[in-house]
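One example copied in:
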Amino acid sequence: MIRKISYIAGLLAIAFLSNFCANVVAPSGGPKDVTPPEILEMDPDNKSTNFTNDKFEITFNEYVQLKDVNQSLLISPPLKEKPEIKMRSKTVIVTLSKEDTLRDNTTYIFNFGNSIVDLNEGNELEDFIYVVSTGENIDSLRIEGSVMNAFDNKAIEEGLVMLYRNATDSTPMLRKPDYLARIIDGSFVITNLTEGEYSIFCLVDENRNMLFDLPTEKVAFLDSLIIPRAISKLVTDTIEVFDSTSADSVTYDSIIQYRSTKFFPKALDLFLFEEEFHKQFLSVKERPEKWRLFFQFSEPVDTLFQLELTEEKSKQDWYIEEFSINRDSISIWINDSILYNKDSLEVILSFPETDTTNTLVLSKDTIVFTISKNMDNKKVSQPNIKIDTLTIENNINTPFHTYKNIHITASHPILKVDTSRIKLFTIQDSIESEIKYNLIYDSLNQRKLELSFEIQPDTKYKLITDSTAFTDIYGFSSDSSASIFTSQTKDFYSSIIVHPDTTEKQLIIQLLNTKESVLHEHVILPGDSCKFENISPGSYMIKAIFDENSNGKWDTGKYIEKKQAEKVYYYPQSIETKSGWDNKIDLKF
């Protein structure tokens, strides 16, 4: 019995020890280090004067690494060459190029951004700036402001704001600035300026040379000179002090004095634009269907676009053109069966193209288009249908917009329409009554037309198209179809009435959806108002364009001509419309 009890006691002890050991947890590493590197020493000290060294050193309390420092380091005024930046133990060493001689009596700013991080956790030393002066004093003037896109007033995420002394109109194209700073979240601050008059210029520097030398670089500028200044004065103020050491624990007023400095000019607003120059080139040339050629251009093309056959130059009217809305792409529908059934088709394309001198010239290109083995009876991307049928699509849905027409789109150019095979009815109490309609052909697109009729609110309709109602240029006919739909009730819609403040300029008032796509627009004269009618309930935005040249569209600027982009204004709140409501909006510029 004693032996049995001892055996059981031994098992219990083993189980207890096993359970105790299983719960032993290795000590944790403690909270994660989120502290950025700390500077222990700088040689020479930050904000040193009479700087004559060719290098400076920054020593930290831990090992650090440099993250994209060559791209992040911004030096103002800029140097001719980038300095050499090396690590030695916990010290960053910056050595100036022998090509650079620092100016006399000038304050230099070395802005490292967030490029210095600790080695283990990657914690950033944010916005670190090292400042030295070659003179007796550290220059202390500054200017600040914001940079917005001129077309939509949105903050610019990146770019340089630059200052020039003794500048002419061409200076930003010829030499680097005297001072500069980066745009951060749409704002900029240029510090440590000396007294003087400056021209201010903003550049999205695509080739990183601090020069406005590419036609696609976006710019902003002010027409007048900037004269930075500061006003400093001694301010006397009263603060309340709580005395807990007093027996009565009273609060009393204390007089303090401090020096307040205000910088001028006040915050500047710059509006960035890209000049009206875009490189024109042919980006896509393909044969997605045996009877269709497709060309995509970087910019809209005009009447200079021409297409010829190399073998049969005398052949006329062998294709139908279909331009996109903004005329930057063209579909060529070949209407000659001998041609579109050829395995290989050679054409001469004439089109406007920008040459190496940025001049628009007429270019000619001989192109051979072939038919791929799997082209027949396959689905293609433009349009997404089988190529050996004629497909008809429309915009009919329920409820149907009371103030819109029925839009019809065919997969191929339409040759003829048999209106006797297209019937439109109203349905009331199960009784169908045929009504009249008009077909409106699109003069720019042979695949599109509209079916127009006097739509009555809250009415049920039926549209029937029998087979062969539509026939395309290839001899294919449409299938039969039927659509039943009901028009929207009249009191469903709302309106927005816009009253601008009196202005001396013509205005373009645009109604936008929440994605800022233009839905409707009115061009109005000074003092006039406008009304957007029959709007579905929803959320909208209002944008106003100051149409300086009265050409009915927004125009960009031109720096060399000192021409600013046309100003735009956004109504500050979104407009929520409800059925049956008239929304009245006052634009106060």
